[in-house]
Amino acid sequence: MAATHSTLQPFHLAFPVTDIAVARKFYGEVIGCEEGRSAPHWVDFNFYGHQLVAHLAPDEVGCKANSSVDGHAVPAKHFGVILNMDQWNELADRLKAAGTTFVIEPYIRFKGQVGEQATMFFMDPCGNALEFKAFANMDQIFAK
Q1: What is the dihedral of CA 134, 140, 141, 144, to 10 degrees?
Q2: CB neighbourhood size of 142 (10 A)
Q3: Distance (Å, rounded) from C-alpha 132 to C-alpha 43?
Q4: pLDDT digit string (tens) for 31-83?
Q5: Which residues have C-beta within 8 Å of that of residue 133, sequence separation ≥ 6?
Q6: What is the CA angle 15-79-87, rounded to 5?
Q7: How far apart are CA 36 and CA 114, in angstroms?
Q8: pTM for this model (two decimals)
Q9: Measuring CA to CA, how many Å separate 20 from each of 2, 27, 46, 91, 129?
Q10: Where are the alpha helices (DSSP H) in 17-131?
């Protein structure tokens, strides 16, 4: 059964990192995630209400392929969260202030079309691609 945005359950995502201390600093201080449980080789984060777990696995990190979306080369392997517009703008400002290099600068994708959304792509310091997006109208998330 498909869930809608009003009935979402927290998801769990485990992903590889090259350095736990670097991941802890980026996800905790730059993204603003509260830290949960941890051990020497992994750390949990509260990722906007979802459980994100960074595992030390340097050989598994990276993105090897892109896909063309709205004229941009989108990292095929990425994750992120859909925020409200205020949260999205705040995060974009925080990332810029932290000196983040964007794969795709913050912009409005599909402007004036079905599914119009704010989006930005960047890499964490371990080489994982992230996308954060926002919709002015949340009913557009799955619009065709």
Answers
A1: -140
A2: 10
A3: 21
A4: 999 999 999 999 999 999 999 999 999 999 988 888 888 788 888 899 999 99
A5: 80, 82, 83, 88, 109, 117, 118, 119, 120
A6: 120
A7: 38
A8: 0.88
A9: 34, 10, 16, 22, 17
A10: 20-25, 85-97
DSSP 9: -
Q: Say what the pLDDT of residue 143 is.
A: 84
> Can you list the domains of the chain with their CATH numbers?
9-57 (3.10.180.10), 66-144 (3.10.180.10)
Which of 111, 109, 110 minimizes the C-alpha distance to 120? 109
Q: How far is CA 130 from CA 45, 59, 113, 144, in A?
A: 15, 18, 24, 24
Burial class (CB in 10 A: 0-12, 13-18, 19+), 134: buried
Q: What's the start-to-end Cα distance of the chain, in Å? A: 19
d(CA 91, CA 67): 24
Helix (H) or strand (E) holding 116: none
Read off the amino acid at residue 72.
H
Which token pair is 26?
Answer: 């980026």
